[in-house]
Predict the 3D structure of the following.
Amino acid sequence: MDNKVNAVKLLVTGGAGYIGSHTVASLLTNGHDVTILDDLSNSTASSIRGIEQVSGRSPHLVVGDIRDGECLDRILRGGDFGGVLHFAGLKAVGESVRHPARYYSVNVGGSIELLAAMRRHNVRRLVFSSSATVYDTEAEMPLQESSPSGHPGHAYGRSKQMVEQILTDEVGSDPSLAVAVLRYFNPVGAHPEAALGEAPTGTPNNLVPYIAQVAAGIRPYLEVYGGDYPTPDGTGMRDYVHVMDLARGHVLALDFLCAHGGLHKWNLGAGRAYSVLEVVKAFELARGQQIPYRITGRRPGDAASYWADVGKAARELRWTPQYTLEDMVRHAWAWQQVLARRV
Ligand code: NAD
Ligand code: WQD
């Protein structure tokens, strides 16, 4: 699946986390050398073992905060870093409403600190984890990279918009900086060998991890947030994309930056939407058992339906998603069983 490219020494912030760990495994498989900087605030070192298991190679882990300039200096002083993949950040929308300053500090302040360190050490390539949350979800579908920006009602979404703006300004002031902004839609699933996956602490915020916990008997039923949307079955529709496809997208985006430089934005999604009930049905098939659910009120701030146009990533990166919804839920369920054995 992965192709060998010229090896690059890379810093991956947040590389112990959900999307970062899958990407680090892909980068190592592709011959790159990886140093992870992660404060382990939303992950554990066990993901390093998973990375080693699937890639047969070891990343170097530095436990630290991206806002710590001296820590960044100690890592980058080693020289020779060909780029940074920047995943580190806080991502819970509801929490960002309760603690906006914390979100701006880590997501925006952390990115600024990282950019400053990259400048000090002449590291000139950055792949940034952005989100579909930057779009106006009332815009015409599917969402293209040029679609209008929205006004997210939370600090999380605004922090992603701010970092995108900062990156645009930085490249404007210094064209030697090459930046890929990757806008993920709804990342789900886990590594097919069930060695890596998402390990939410507390109650999951997102649909698929929640369903997985219901399937495992940890929670009694799924609350389906709204059954009266203007969609075919009345439930919300999203563009779910397998985390393995996302990981491959990062490797290709890095290759692109190495070849072309510049500032680029790419949607990474499946290019189609599934309803909550379609995801539930797919999970029932994977699990071989019914998932109890109750339709409740809409979750404040939720859009009815949105999905990506992934044509730009297909044309420019030669990236097309390869995993189906069935794969996403099957792998999520296999991973949930691994998590259950760990407790
Ligand atoms: P995650 O929480 O699993 O990974 C983030 C990692 O960053 C964690 O390992 C955490 O310990 C680390 N981290 C947090 N604050 C840090 C700090 N101050 N210093 C160093 N490390 C820190 O999240 P994820 O789902 O893998 O998301 C990765 C990135 O992708 C985030 O920037 C997120 O906003 C973005 N994103 C995620 C989704 C999604 O639904 N998962 C969607 C769109 C965009
Ligand atoms: C998916 C669908 C819910 C949970 C969030 C962030 C977004 C991005 C991805 C980071 C919706 C419904 C959910 C539940 C439900 N993250 N649902 N019952 O809200 O599309 O996107 O994660 O950038 O910024 O907002 O994802 O998984 O929470 O919801 O019915 O218990 O499932 O209403 O239709 P969302 P989600």
About this structure: The two ends are 33 Å apart (CA to CA).
